[in-house]
Amino acid sequence: MTSAILSDFKNYLMERSDFFAGYPVNLSYDYREILHFFEFSINNVGDPFIPSQYQINSRLFERETLAFFANLYQAKDWWGYVTSGGTEGNLYGLLLGRETYPDAILYASADSHYSINKAARFFKIPQTTIQSQPNGEMDFEDLRSRLNPNYPAIINLNIGTTFKGAVDNIDRILEALETKGIKDFHIHCDGAMGGMLLPYLAPEWVNFNRPIHSIAISGHKFIGCPFPCGIVLTYQELADKLASNIEYIGSKDLTIGGSRNGHAPLFLWYAIQKRQHLFDTEARECVNKAAYLHRQLENAGLSSSLNPYSTTVVFPKPQEATVQKWQLATLGNLAHVVVMQNHSYELLNCLIADIINSGQL
Known about the structure:
This protein is of the alpha/beta class. The chain has helices spanning 2-17, 59-72, 86-100, 114-123, 140-146, 170-179, 198-201, 220-224, 236-239, 263-275, 279-299, 320-326, 345-358, and strands at 78-83, 105-109, 127-130, 153-158, 185-190, 214-218, 230-235, 244-246, 251-253, 305-306, 312-316, 329-331, 334-338.
């Protein structure tokens, strides 16, 4: 009975994976070489850089994984950890901002990920929502008008907004802060998906040589992993604000969670070792395929959009059957496809035909 249930579930997952286009998850990976590590209860509780009394851990792999991202974003004097995903990274980055400036106001665009509002509620940070431009990018004139010069600012900068894939312009944000005379600020970058595209497509656009203070990137999206995971990076001096010594684990507590998935750093490390020389090519191929999808929809008479440095193609929401078949993300009368490594041109052509033939709502 159990075997039959599991067999049915596997068949279901295989079928649904073949028609998965609406969310930024790379399904093209091969971890068979390290699956035997699931025999072990790997827990990275505490600070990745301090030994713990819980010795069944993957701290070495976590540190090397973090070093890859730190190098990618030109970070110095950095600290970070492997998270459960983008939401935890955003929570951590905004908590750092609150701890650095307890009376700060959080500014985030209307197109920011829902975890930003969640962080404001969790940490009781006063929040001002900034209008978005039609392409999903922050409206910088609205930011300038709403910035309160009497309080420090926590800014959420999107490296690929959730629905439209827009990248907020850090120069315009800095100009707004300077215009209002705000010198005390914390810029957190939500790079859940775009954080693995931008360093290869426009490496000087956002990095730690600019006045950013934290960044969150998902691991299961561009890199690909069987379970949600991610990383958060910041400066060591900022992370130390959250540190407390915990005798019970023989380490410091600086993270959102206590026990942490020790398999995630191992899997991310493995993928980085095997594919880091391909990431640049993968990013450009995804962008090219997204441009192809965008052109084909436009040629078919469907108004669609695609932001620079993005693989997210937005178009009118098709009939519900097509939405369900391809698991499209929708917002009002719009839908989107996030083009990933596992999306072949053949698959995109099937998707395009279904979108065109289904008609719009």
